[in-house]
Amino acid sequence: MKFTEEHEWLLPEGDLVVVGITEHAATALGDLVFVELPEIGMNVVKDDEICVIESVKAASDILAPIDGEIVEVNSALVDNPTLVNEDPMGAAWFFKMKPANMADLDEMLDEDEYKALVE
Amino acid sequence: MVDDAGYAFAADPDRLGIWMSDLKRTALFDLHVELGAKMVAFAGYDMPVQYPLGVLKEHLHCRAAAGLFDVSHMGQVILRSRSGVLADAALALETLVPVDVLGIAAGRQRYGFFTNEGGGILDDLMIANRGDHLFLVVNAGCKDADFAHMAAHLSEVCTLEMVEGRSLLALQGPAAEMALARLVPGVADMRFMDVAVLDMGGVDLWVSRSGYTGEDGYEISVPDGAVADFARALLAMNEVEAIGLGARDSLRLEAGLCLYGSDIDEGTSPVEGALSWAIQKLRRTGGARAGGFPGAARILDELTGGAVRKRVGLQPEGRAPMRGHTVLFADQTSSEPIGEVTSGGFGPTIEGPMSMGYVSAQNAAIGTVIYADVRGKRLPATVVRMPFNPANFKR
Q1: CA 20 to 30 Å from B188, out of A34, B135, B264, B315?
Q2: Taking CA atoms, what residue in B is nearest to A50?
């Protein structure tokens, strides 16, 4: 699993990458009440704002962690945003991407580096 | 993504006077920390925004059982008349508020607001008649200005005392009476908006049956030295959980209640703010004590002729919350805004988004569909009656 400084996690799955937000992020945001997911088939560029999430506290954006195409979204989050608080690193993944360049993941933080960032 | 580690509170920080240093602490500060609260700066105080339960569950717990709030940052003021005749103090205060203060019976309280010469609202407050004096509770962010305002205008007739050394707690929710009555049996006999001084084993409690959640409940002024034990005794009960400012905000919004500095301020008149109900007939045109408060010309005029804009409740059609400062339009294409959201978020009890804001009078009728600009999209919302969640007072 890889991480971004924007508190996303990326998990390679075949030629796809599963993306979610970290437990640290979910805790900091508080209870989520609204999730807007990107459209399937959308081509995104790193740092595009592609999801909107709102907690009881405020709205935040999720940025595209890498270039690529959105191929699947987790629509369960739209009906049940608090799943993100319950299982941020598992069942509450946000979307799956087909990366333009799988090697982009090598640039990402590993678990130790991410932990050092949030501690 | 998480660009706001801090708490984005609905209110305008400048207006509420938030300082990032020299934060004051309430007498319950150590208890908040011990309970694991996340503390934030609010109106100059280091206050609990949430406890480990979290905003959503704190909110739901308060509606289901009872929630304990530390509101010691608010101002408690005692107003006495120099003559010793309470009516003199009541009539003096009437020169600053468009409220029938003289008509507040002993042991009762009434909601009101200080107005300015332009007809705007300087602060909203509770006014209680405690027999030989008036007791006022004012907002934390306004308390120094309120005190100075009263001192400037009332000192000839009244003495003013900013109460020091007393904390203020709120216990709110359907189980509040049962919980508080275990410690202070007399509270069960009070009804909504009653005030009383009650003894709890030698500690004098100043109790009102009122609150800021739309639930039944109490606000209790307690000597600082006794407040931690009192709070612990309540929190030891199964029904009672500590509730932070986060849930306090969503609870009051579901109840359709204004947050001073966000929903009402010096630029909003009481009529625009849909608070005309708090101006008794006696202070209106034709009444026995009509006018005689700052901004009366504008306010009395608006009471008969209407205001150009009005605070309304808004029910967004989708799931997306429409938060404060969201700009409102009459339709999907017009470029001219008709108003702005002043408070908005997610209502845990109503399980959906809710907002309040100002719209032009022609768009203010219940059932009107208007459009809000949410991240560049025009999303529909319907003007609805408030409260969003029905009140549960013991009248």
Answers
A1: B135
A2: B1
